[in-house]
Automatic annotation (TrEMBL):
Residue ranges that the Swiss-Prot or TrEMBL entry lists as coiled coil: none
UniProt-listed InterPro entries: Carb_Metab_HTH_regulators (IPR050313), DeoR-like_C (IPR014036), DeoR_HTH (IPR001034), NagB/RpiA_transferase-like (IPR037171), Tscrpt_reg_HTH_DeoR_CS (IPR018356), WH-like_DNA-bd_sf (IPR036388), WH_DNA-bd_sf (IPR036390)
PANTHER family the record matches: GLYCEROL-3-PHOSPHATE REGULON REPRESSOR, HTH-TYPE TRANSCRIPTIONAL REGULATOR SRLR-RELATED
Official protein name in the record: Transcriptional regulator, DeoR family
Domain HTH deoR-type: 3-58
SMART domains: DeoRC, HTH_DEOR
MF annotations from Gene Ontology: DNA binding; DNA-binding transcription factor activity
Entries under Gene3D superfamilies matching the protein: 3.40.50.1360, Winged helix-like DNA-binding domain superfamily/Winged helix DNA-binding domain
PROSITE patterns hit by this protein: HTH_DEOR_1, HTH_DEOR_2
Keywords noted in UniProt: DNA-binding, Repressor, Transcription, Transcription regulation
């Protein structure tokens, strides 16, 4: 069997089963585990999968830059943002992450809402300019241009003085075993810090992020109190998350 054929069969198995195990693939193809690990390394380098201990999981196609993400299922992101916006009630303090879905969230907030929004995203803060009743607290730090959010020690230190009711988290991967993940280490650190400052964490997850993983883990999936998904998201994707006690909100 040619290497290209074996790689395609690996990708087919990954799509069918949601994960692949190196030892099982070695037996199936009658090749060494070193050969399979090399295949997985090369497929990971091309962005087709995310390697984990003992095998691989689907890679999230959401791990592209902000400009690229703006073109991914904009209608579904708007629906998710609208549903998430309805969770904020007057008087609350809510932390809103960066990203295209988070922008949709703040765009759907009522203009007469009186609440406090904490964000480390300049884009999100600017979107709230016309909301006269919303107090905007901007968390500073080093600008991470890939996602247009502030990161680093200064941002994490500023968060230590905040206690919020809700945190709306953006991720690039949600997996019942691999947890909540993102494609940058510093982003993972600040998302973890943001979650620690809120009573409840709500994850915003369009379909391409479910049952997928990125390189840097933020937290176990159970750190999410709720996950907002598209209305038509398959039960097969949400049932393993519900089994962990996570509420699934369909937008």
């Amino acid at each position: 069997m040619l290497t290209s054929q074996r790689k395609q069969l690996i990708l087919d198995a990954l799509k069918r089963d949601g994960q692949v195990i190196a030892k099982s693939l070695s037996s199936e193809f009658a090749v060494s585990e070193d050969t399979i690990r090399r295949d997985l390394r090369e497929l990971a380098a091309d962005g087709y999968l995310q390697r984990v201990h003992g095998g691989a999981l689907p890679a999230s196609p959401a791990a592209v830059d902000l400009a690229g993400r703006q073109g991914i299922e904009s209608a579904s992101k708007a629906a998710i943002g609208k549903a998430a916006a309805q969770m904020i009630v007057p008087g609350q303090i809510a932390i809103v992450d960066g990203g295209t879905t988070a922008v949709q969230l703040v765009r759907h907030l009522p203009l007469d809402l009186r609440a406090t929004i904490v964000t480390h995203s300049p884009t999100v803060a600017v979107e709230l300019g016309d909301h006269a009743g919303v107090e905007v607290i901007m968390i500073g730090g080093r600008l991470y241009r890939h996602s247009m959010v502030n990161v680093g020690g200064a941002a994490i230190e500023a968060l230590s003085h905040i206690r919020a009711d809700l945190y709306f988290m953006g991720v690039t991967g949600v997996h019942p075993e691999a947890g909540l993940s993102t494609g940058d280490l510093e982003e993972a650190y600040i998302k973890r810090a943001l979650a620690a400052r809120a009573a409840e964490t709500v994850v915003l997850a369009s379909a391409e992020k479910l049952n997928a993983a990125s390189a840097f883990m933020i937290a176990e999936a159970s750190a999410a109190h709720a996950i907002v998904v598209e209305k038509e998201t398959a039960e097969a994707l949400t049932a393993p998350l519900e089994a962990l006690g996570i509420a699934i909100v369909r937008a």
